Amino acid sequence: MGAISIIRISGDEAIEIVNKIFKGKDLTKVDTHTINYGYIYNPYDKKIVDEVLVMIMKKPRSFTMEDIVEINCHGGISTTNKILELVLTSGARLSEPGEFTKRAFLNGRIDLIKAEAIMDLINAKTEMSRKLAFNQIEGKLSTLIRNLKKEILGIMANVEVNIDYPEYEDIEKITYENLKIKIEEIKKNMKKMLEETENSRIIKEGIKAVIIGKPNVGKSSILNKLTDEEKAIVTDIPGTTRDVVEGTVNLDGIIINIKDTAGIRETKDIIEKIGVERSKKLINEVDLVIMVLNNNEELTEEDMELLDKIKNITHIIVINKVDLENKLDKEKISNSNIVMCNTINIDGLDFLKQKIKELFNLNKIDKQDFNYLSNARQISLLKEAIVVISDIEEAIATKIPIDIIETDLRKIWLILSDILGEIYQEDLINEIFSQFCLGK
After folding, report:
1. For a disulfide at 422, which of 299, 389, 404, 417, Cβ 3.0-4.6 Å?
2. 405, 415, 422: which is closest to 156 by C-alpha?
3. Tens of pLDDT along 31-50?
4. Which pTM was predicted?
């Protein structure tokens, strides 16, 4: 339901198909990139279906680099379905998920990085993730990859000339020394890109966090205060939270996905016991553990076991109920990431947010230069390229003939081409675009 619906048709016969059901100008004779007023009618009973505006975009000046027609009709399920039915019976077929973007890729309009970025843009939940996706659509990351390819291609060409035309003195002679310098620079750029990729994961997916601790230490209150919602039931009765409760916080454009868990303690209650086991399991599945302790209670054996369990995981210790008498021995907690708070009047929760920012360098994430790899496919390929570069460095150190080293250079060039989608497997492409919605 909406004011306007759009039916989009792409392909060699797109204009002819719509012209069969359009009453107005002859669409086969109008100029490209024009909007044409008229009616969609049923050619079988000659009855008008809707008053429309039809946009014509002739190849190659379109998203798919094919002829594209967009029928702008009145919104509503019945009208849209009827026009779609007429388009299909006139010779078109329903698109597959992501097929418009897939055609744009296959026809050379965009590379695979830009195609994947379109999906990221659709799924963007914050302004930062939107900027990350849009920068990739603009081609900034693609340009970085192409520049690396160009450098590698230049070295390969130089090697070829040195081998085939040794008499050319005006061509740089590729020695082990200068090859080592060139390779180190390429590796440095690749590793920088890879290191910054963690930022892109945080921007896109957010930070996965879990709140743990004994029953009745204020875990649910912290979740409710952070999310500004009554996500979790809060009572004075220990063991109220039996299962995982989830909420999200937008922290300076980064989503924090927080899970409140059942209080961890020994229990004979079967349902609570399942909740406790889930809580323990989550500790190894998140980016951040927030452990809550009560200021007015002494540390127990269970507390010490939990502190030991999370010592090698990024974590923050929240000492709650600071308004009550202090009985907790902070000397036993060897951790600098301690936040003091009181969930009754939200004292300290701002310090908790600040501590999260510090731990994940959120203030240092480059908010201007969003040139990060954005998915597992791109990351795994770049890691593969870095491994090959390490092989080249070893080959240089052992003085393996440079013409043999060139084979590994070619491997890197092909891997970078794979990231851009300049070489690809059909099954992989089908899998990538199957994740898109129909309209894209």
Report:
1. 417
2. 405
3. 999 999 999 999 999 999 99
4. 0.61
